[in-house]
Amino acid sequence: MIVVGLTGGIGSGKSTVAALLVERGAVLIDADEAAREVVKPGRPAYAKLVERFGAGVVAPDGNLDRSAMAAIVFGDPESMADLNAIVHPEVRAEIANRLASLSGSEHVVVLDIPLLVEHGGQDPYGLAGVIVVDAPLDLVLERLVKRRQMDRSDAEARIATQASRPERMARADFVITNTGTLEELEEMVGRAWAWIEHLAAHAAGDEGHSAG
Ligand code: ADP
After folding, report:
1. pTM of the model
2. Residues with CB under 6 A from ligand 1
3. E strand or H helix at 17
4. Going by CA atoms, what residue is nearest to atom 20 of ligand 1?
5. Positive or negative: CA dihedral 166, 172, 178, 184
6. What are the phi and psi torsion angles at 25 (to 5°)?
7. Fewer CB atoms inside 10 Å of the end CB: C or N, the chain?
8. Element (H, E) at 198
C-alpha cells in the first residue's frame, strides 16, 4: 500500500482530480466524509458535542445539526477550538482505521484531505507524498460562482478561511496546475499517476532492501 495526500483549496478542482485518480485505480479516503461519519449519533464525538454545545445542535431527526453547529462556532474562536478538539482526533482515528484495513494490500490510497496545511502540516498518516491542486484566485471564484452557483461574497469568505496558496504550495511534492481544460487536467492527472507509481516502486524497493 502507498498513501498519497491530495489537497487544494475550494474550487481548485481537487474533487475532480480525486475522481480521476479513482478512475485510474486509486482507493479514495475522503477526510470530509470521515468527518461527517464521526459525528453520527452513537459515535463518541456526537455525545461530546451535545454535552459541550447543548441540545440545540441536534436536528429533529437526531443527527447533528451542522448548520446550527456552524452558526455557534462562526466568529467564536473558543467554540471553534472546542469543536476542533472534539472532532479532529476522532477524524484522525477514523482515517487511521481505514488505512489500517487497507495496509498490506497493493493499493494506491489517495487521502483527500482539505485541511492538511491548516493542521500545521503534520502528517500522522505516513504519506509517501502530497499532491496539491492549484489554480489562481480569479479562476477559482469563476468556477465557484458559475459552476457551483455560489454567491461571490460567500465564495470569497470561504477562501479567506483557508490556507493561502503559498502555504499550500510549500507542502506540495507534486503540483497539478488546473488552469486549462478538463482534458488538460486529465493529462496532468496521468502524469501524477505516473509519479505515484514511481513512488510506489521506490517504496517497494526500500522494503525489499530493509527486509533483505
Ligand atoms: P474542489 O473539489 O477543489 O472544490 P471541484 O473539483 O469540485 O473543486 O471543481 C469545482 C468546479 O469546477 C466543478 O464544477 C468542476 O467540474 C469544475 N472544474 C474543475 N476543473 C475544471 C477545468 N479544468 N475546466 C472546467 N471546469 C473545471
Report:
1. 0.91
2. 8, 10-16, 143, 147-148, 178, 180-182, 185
3. helix 14-23
4. 13
5. positive
6. 120, 0
7. C
8. helix 182-211
Distance 118 CA to ligand 1 centre (A): 21
Q: How far apart are the first and last CA of the chain?
A: 19
Report the mean per-residue pLDDT for the chain. 92
pLDDT at position 202? 86
| 7-33 pLDDT tens trace | 999 999 999 999 999 999 999 999 999
Report CA(140)–ligand 1 centroid distance (Å).
Answer: 8
Collapsed DSSP state (helix, strand, coil) of residue 134: strand
How many of the other CB atoms lie within 10 Å of CB of 5?
22
What is the position in ligand 1's atom list of the atom closest to the CA of 133?
3
| CA–CA dist 120, 170 (Å, integer) | 12
Could you tell me the CA-to-CA distances from 178 to 14, 161, 173 in Å, in that order? 9, 21, 16
Tell me if residue 76 falls in helix, strand or coil. coil
DSSP code at position 180 = S
More confident residue, 203 or 33: 33
Query: What confidence tens digit (pLDDT) does each residue in 143-188 have?
Result: 999 999 999 999 999 898 888 899 899 989 999 999 999 999 999 9
131 Cβ contact partners less than 8 Å away, ≥ 6 residues apart:
4, 5, 6, 7, 17, 172, 173, 174, 175, 176, 192
